[in-house]
Design brief:
alpha/beta, Quinone Oxidoreductase, Chain A, domain 1, Rossmann fold, 7-stranded mixed beta sheet, 6-stranded parallel beta sheet, 12 helices, 17 strands, 28% helix, binds nicotinamide-adenine-dinucleotide, binds zinc ion
């Protein structure tokens, strides 16, 4: 089959790889109909996340149709339409039971193979999904496929970010970063009742979308964001800061914008060995810091059940689509934000 594979720093290749096969009776093979390119793929692309085996199929966001189901799969059969969280989960271990499905003891991240172990990714024609019954979710005909794709990762992650910030209507809240994840955090924070919500970025088109989604846009290249937030809060700082970038600079900004006793909720993937604020600074502000990988299965299931994605035009963040064969270009356009790209998806047909 054809797939986009990792071939080294900033090299994505359209290659022919082995077709995935059922290895265990709980596996399924999904024929991918839509795959996403995610900000997390850029960490690998730029070599900030190291250790991925060259030749690994990239990507962890997808929707598709079951092509083949193992003999023990109960919830899906050939032809079922599905959406998928970006990690697999068993549904039975301690972490799955408490809703931290991203830390399932048997779970793996799609598109991550290291020393020959792990799972191939979704930027391909087909993908093998282990523990299919507890990993995948049904994609009903009344749910737009693009919303379903976002639910498997960035919408769930944005929601997790806002949920961890304990949004309340009276709080002054800030989202740092208006990429796909930050824009979904804006939507989720509004859904959870945020009234005074600021969104920070440096890209005008992304800020314009944040404004459409209900935030007050702040362009960090044109103003002193800290001064602005202090002015808006009688000099205290924001009650909640949601960090959706994954850099030292933005984590430091999150700390600087926060009032004593406030909450930083960070979902950016950080690869630095130390926090951008010291333990002493954390102490001096009585901060609560929440972070980590989103339990996307838990959130996708909850949000589907509550009918949340249907209520918001979240698919507006998908500005570009490419055929799989043009995947290298899709990475370049998404990475360099060419042609005002916010999020790119890949079609297999
Ligand atoms: P993205 O790269 O498209 O978006 C990042 C945004 O931050 C961009 O719009 C950029 O202009 C802005 N930005 C960068 N530096 C800035 C600065 N100094 N000040 C203001 N704005 C700045 O990525 P994305 O797809 O939105 O993902 C965001 C982060 O979330 C990434 O680190 C990604 O790996 C991570 N992520 C985490 C999870 C999780 O489970 N925790 C899941 C998905 C993605
Ligand atoms: Zn992702």
């Amino acid at each position: 089959m054809q797939a986009l594979t990792f071939a080294g720093k900033e090299i994505i290749e359209f290659s022919t790889v082995k077709d995935p096969e059922i290895l265990k009776p709980t596996d399924v093979i999904v024929r991918i109909t839509l795959a996403g390119v995610c900000g997390s793929d850029l960490h690998v692309y730029h070599g900030r996340e190291t250790g991925l085996d060259p030749g690994t199929v990239m990507g962890h966001e997808f929707t598709g149709i079951i092509e083949e189901a193992g003999s023990e799969v109960k919830n899906f059969k050939k032809g079922s339409r599905v959406l998928s969280p970006f990690t697999t989960s068993c549904g039975e271990c301690f972490y799955c039971r408490v809703g931290l499905t991203c830390r399932c003891i048997k779970g793996n991240l799609f598109g991550w193979v290291q020393h020959g172990h792990g799972l191939q990714g979704a930027q391909a024609m087909y993908i093998r999904v282990p523990m299919a019954d507890s990993t995948l979710l049904p994609l009903s005909n009344d749910l737009n496929e693009r919303k379903a794709l976002l639910l498997g990762d960035v919408f769930s992650t944005g929601y997790f970010c806002a949920d961890n910030a304990h949004i309340t209507p009276e709080a002054v809240s800030v989202v740092v970063g208006c990429g796909p994840v930050g824009l979904m955090a804006v939507t989720a924070a509004k859904h959870l009742g945020a009234e005074k919500l600021f969104a920070v970025d440096v890209v005008p088109e992304r800020l314009a979308l944040a404004e459409q989604f209900g935030a007050i846009p702040l362009n960090a290249s044109m103003m002193d964001v800290k001064e602005k937030i202090l002015n808006e809060t009688d000099g205290r700082g924001a009650d909640k800061v949601m960090e959706a970038v994954g850099s030292d600079k933005t984590l430091r900004l999150a700390y600087d914008l926060l009032r004593p006793g406030g909450i930083i909720s960070s979902v950016g993937v950080h690869t630095a060995p130390h926090y951008a604020f010291s333990p002493a600074e954390g102490y001096d502000k009585n901060i609560t810091y929440k972070n980590g990988r989103c339990p996307a299965h838990y959130y996708a299931e909850k949000l589907l059940r509550e009918g949340v994605p249907q209520r918001y035009p979240i698919e507006k963040i998908i500005t570009h689509q490419f055929h799989l064969k043009d995947g290298a270009r899709a990475y370049e356009v998404f990475d360099k934000k060419l042609d005002n790209c916010i999020k790119a998806v890949l079609l297999t047909e």
